[in-house]
Amino acid sequence: MTAISDCFETLRHNRECALIPFITAGDPDLETTAAALQILDRSGADIIELGVPYSDPLADGPVIQAAATRALQRGTKFESVLEMLQATTPKIRSPIVLFTYYNPILHRGIEKFLSSVAAAGVAGLVVPDLPLEEAAGLLQPAGEMGIDVTLLVAPTSSAERIQAIAQSSQGFIYLVSVTGVTGMRSQVQTRVSDLLKQIRSVTDKPIGVGFGISEPDQARQVREWGADGVAVGSAFVKRLAEGTPEQGLNAIGQFCQSLKAAIKTTHSTNTHVD
Fold first, then answer.
1. Is 60 considered catalytic here?
2. Of the four, 98, 110, 209, 255, which is 20 to 30 A from 126 by CA?
3. 114 exposed, middle or buried (CB, 10 Å; 0-12, 13-18, 19+)?
4. Helical spans, DSSP H, in the chain
């Protein structure tokens, strides 16, 4: 069992929902990123998504795009991100999922990329621009190395496509809650509830919901609709970027605790438990 699968299995046994915060590597610097990973780990995170800065982040909204731009301007390199992770992952319990685009993977070569991230302690990958039709070339070697490649289901995905993605996705299934890019929204679309039920009808794999969730009440709602995990990105990135690094770290720690408290318990009968 992979680290991510084991995490979801333990949470499901305890009737809990996974909190999956996202931050961008290198914003404001990698020293702060390492500290942020440890603070999130101590503050209720179950799995942590770490965005690899990329020059053309098509799936990211303005907050995360700006963070990636700042990180690149300050000289953040993929190799330095891996060095930071290699020193940091032994200090935390939360599995690390890299959020990266496919071009950097192809540029380095799939085998070399996977070997390097595995050596750094990475447990999973989310590759937002990797279509299902081209995923096999990454899924198979990643699975052999114990790295989960999690595929995304869009609100516009057909029933046939949802079933195919659910069958292939590793670790969990990532349900995108909105049509469009990442970013903070004032409310979560009620269609997410129907999509969760639809996905649940074809698989028993864990389902994480992300994109557009930015407040504890929204996280609680998604959990009550039956999600196994709640991913929050822009709201963390924004808080970490405000004020001094110390102020940003304090802010994300407090925010992480509030989100975890919001999803820790629920009396909803819709919650999925095996």
1. yes
2. 255
3. buried
4. 3-13, 30-42, 62-73, 78-88, 102-108, 110-119, 136-144, 159-168, 191-200, 216-224, 234-241, 245-264
Long-range contacts of 36-41 (CB under 8 A, 24+ apart): 36/240, 36/248, 36/249, 36/252, 37/88, 37/92, 37/94, 37/96, 38/88, 38/91, 38/92, 39/249, 39/252, 39/253, 39/256, 40/94, 40/236, 40/252, 40/253, 40/256, 41/91, 41/92, 41/93, 41/94
Q: Which residues of the chain have pLDDT under 70?
A: 1, 57, 59, 179-189, 265-274
Contacts for 109 with CB less than 8 Å, ≥ 6 apart: none
**Burial of 272: CB neighbours in 10 Å, binned 0-12, 13-18, 19+:** middle
Residue with tokens 């998604």: 222
pTM for the structure as a whole: 0.92
User: Could you give the CA distance from residue 218 to residue 262 in angstroms, rounded to a whole number?
Assistant: 9
- Tallying the residues shown for the chain, one arrives at 274
Tokens encoding 70: 């700042």
Q: How far apart are CA 135 and CA 255, in angstroms?
A: 34
Rounded Cα gap, residues 169 and 157, in angstroms: 15
Burial class (CB in 10 A: 0-12, 13-18, 19+), 14: exposed
The catalytic position among 16, 27, 41, 60 is 60
C-alpha distances (whole Å) from 230 to each of 21, 115, 164, 176, 237 are 8, 28, 22, 11, 16
What does the DSSP 8-state code read for residue 134?
Answer: G
End-to-end CA distance of the chain: 17
Q: In degrees rounded to 5, what are phi and psi of residue 229?
A: -150, 150
Known catalytic residue at 144: no
User: Locate tokens 């490649």: which residue?
Assistant: 149
